[in-house]
Amino acid sequence: MITVRAERFRLAEVFTIARGSRTEAAVLTVEVEREGVRGWGECVPYARYGETLESVAAQIEGLPEGIDRMALQAALPAGAARNAVDCALWDLEAKATGRRVWELAGLAAPGPMMTAFTLSLDAPEKMRAAAARHAHRPLLKIKLGTPDDMARLEAVRAGAPEARIIVDANEGWTAEVYADLAPHLLRLGVAMVEQPLPAGEDGMLAEIDRPLPVCADESCHDRASLPDLAGKYDMVNIKLDKTGGLTEALALREAARAAGYRVMVGCMVGTSLAMAPAVLVAQGAEVVDLDGPLLLAEDRPHAMTYDAAGVHPAEPALWG
């Protein structure tokens, strides 16, 4: 039996990107029960990809009973719906067999991974204050993507002079804006820029030098995305809500590595249940951005542990 329900988790503070603001994380929780054993997973439907809570729930509710992970890959496209069910099926198998998901997947035992902490898009003075509050964190991610980002960059660097910084433009720049900003990103010690141009309008990236590594986010969903990234990107951001679950995420990681890309593992703003499988994909990644629970005012029971070593693998009581 497959059940799906919408849940909402309050954020610690308003979270803003170039596309808008939110005060809560709206997620779908999926449970798969078979022979008295229950596995679960979570997804975050994303309007950017034409998803809503209702449309994704309908996709899940239309699946046949007894579907397995391999059949699921063909039954649903890459996206949030397949992610939640795929992760629930992995969890179900782990609980039914008494083995951890990483063992089932043939992976090495996972360890903690240092994660970025995301600073919400805001006025420069507020971003400087936020950077100062989090200056102790080794990696800060800045949400940008407007024509007025230079002041924000300067403010964050002033607030956190020692932190490593990466930038996410969320498709918000034009080619001209990015060309103007790129030297300043280097000057301010930015280590990587994520999706500076809109997906489908990023051809210019193949025509310019890239002294600053560029990461594909909205331009990279699953393995089928890789051919179109050639010559334009240096890194891919793997998110389970884009790949359609852990199964494809692991396959994408291997294919991306084989094609010469560095790997970033990211997330939507979700709970620890969404981060748990992503931590397995994040092992060995050059950049890890699994800070969703750090942005929440409330999380699930048996939440992930975050400390000076980073985000730790989930306990079996949560997932996997």
Write up what this structure looks like:
The chain has about 325 residues and is α/β, with parallel strands linked by helices. It has helices at about 55-60, 70-75, 80-95, 100-105, 125-135, 150-160, 175-185, 240-245, 245-260, 270-280; strands spanning about 1-15, 20-35, 35-45, 115-120, 140-145, 165-170, 190-195, 215, 235-240, 260-265, 285-290, 305, 310. The strands form three sheets. The protein has an eight-stranded parallel β-sheet with strand order 4-5-6-7-8-9-10-11. Helix 10 (about 270-280) links the parallel strand 10 and strand 11 (about 285-290). Helix 1 (about 55-60) packs across helix 3 (about 80-95) and helix 5 packs parallel to helix 6. The model has no long low-confidence stretch (mean pLDDT about 95).
Number of strands: 13
What order do the strands of the largest sheet run in, or round the barrel if closed? 4-5-6-7-8-9-10-11
> How big is the Rg?
19 Å
Task: Tell me, rounded to a whole number, the average pLDDT.
Answer: 95
Structural class: alpha/beta
Low-confidence stretches: none
What is the H/E string? EEEHHHHEHEHEHEEEHHEHEEE
The main sheet comes to: 8 strands, parallel
Count helical runs. 10
- Helical content class: 25-40%
Query: Tell me, what's the shape?
Result: globular
Taking the alpha carbons of the first and last residues, their distance comes to: 19 Å
